[in-house]
């Protein structure tokens, strides 16, 4: 097992920097997820750790070695990709053992490693099948098994579940988490899916345009987003952002509606801000918003409802902006119906309108 450090790591293609001097310390055994929109540099970063991409500047350290100039096979890492091409003409057993065979390990050692990986991943009954006779989830487990047999210090995953359907993705997520609990290796996992990031990670690294914008536990980045990008990227539905101007301790929205500035924040008059409210913190009165000393109230017409079973998502309009709210004791709502909503102000955020930076930080 090993710790991993990125020190001012840069990736440059010609004159274009696609990863801008990022630094990150990953503890031994930690499960870290790099998450961000497509093109933000996640795969490039992971591939530099793997040795599949040259590092333009800075250092990558695995364990206590600077690995910049080490080829992938000498870094003791295993990588699982989205396209996990198994060898179709080989059995599961042969697929699992292939990398060890190439490395000319003794057959007894290969057999032991394959049996161990198969047991961990519940592949033992499938060892003599070929990939064509496996389901998508089973194939993905074989791909992970190929990574396990090498007992790597670090597992690198690049969107390993993106080709699976939604239900299978949820199952495999649980399997990956169990796998990590069993083998305890350091994991760096790349995904564009914030739900995957939230459910898997010990720590989430949120990337945008080749920069790290926030690092924290899933709850830290959910509850204390550093800026409006993180606020809307993490969590579903995305946090509502209402543009307004601070005047006399209140946020005045475009139509003159005023809501007190969330408690603990001191913002100068005239500052243009976005008031951030998660759907969980704005609900029609009498529909289960936990009581708090810091309530505000607004009236909004509901334009659309999405019943989800135990709760209903309400789309409403406030000062010309769409707001998503929740109702935990669902009842039928007719489009156009005006409801009085409570807002838990102590759970709300303010972001600078220009920079997007949280004014809580
Ligand atoms: N070989 C390359 N030459 C030039 N630009 C590249 C190359 N590979 C990737 N990029 C660019 O680097 C950026 C980051 O890509 P990537 O790391 O694949 O993003 P992600 O995995 O977050 O979707 C993208 O803008 C992409 O177009
Ligand atoms: Mg990618």
What features would you highlight for this structure?
5-stranded antiparallel β-sheet; alpha+beta; 2 domains; about 25% helix; binds magnesium ion; about 350 residues; Rossmann fold; binds adenosine-5'-diphosphate; 8 helices; 6-stranded mixed β-sheet; 20 strands; elongated; OB fold (Dihydrolipoamide Acetyltransferase, E2P)
Biggest β-sheet description: 6 strands, mixed
Q: Taking Cα atoms only, what radius of gyration do you get, to the nearest Å? A: 24 Å
- Supply the CATH architecture of the largest domain: 3-Layer(aba) Sandwich
What's the CATH topology name of the largest domain?
A: Rossmann fold
Compute the number of helices.
8
What's the CATH C level of the largest domain? Alpha Beta
Q: Which structural class do the helices and strands define?
A: alpha+beta
**Roughly how much helix do the residues carry, as a percent range?**
10-25%
The ligands bound in this entry are:
adenosine-5'-diphosphate, magnesium ion
**How many domain units?**
2
Provide the CATH superfamily of the largest domain. Answer: P-loop containing nucleotide triphosphate hydrolases
Low-confidence stretches: none
Shape: elongated
Q: Numbering strands along the chain, what is their spatial order in the largest sheet?
A: 6-7-8-3-9-10
CA distance, first residue to last residue: 35 Å
Beta percentage is: 25-35%
Mean of residue pLDDT?
94
Number of strands: 20
Order of helices and strands: EEEHEEEHHHEHEHEEHHEEEEEEEEEE
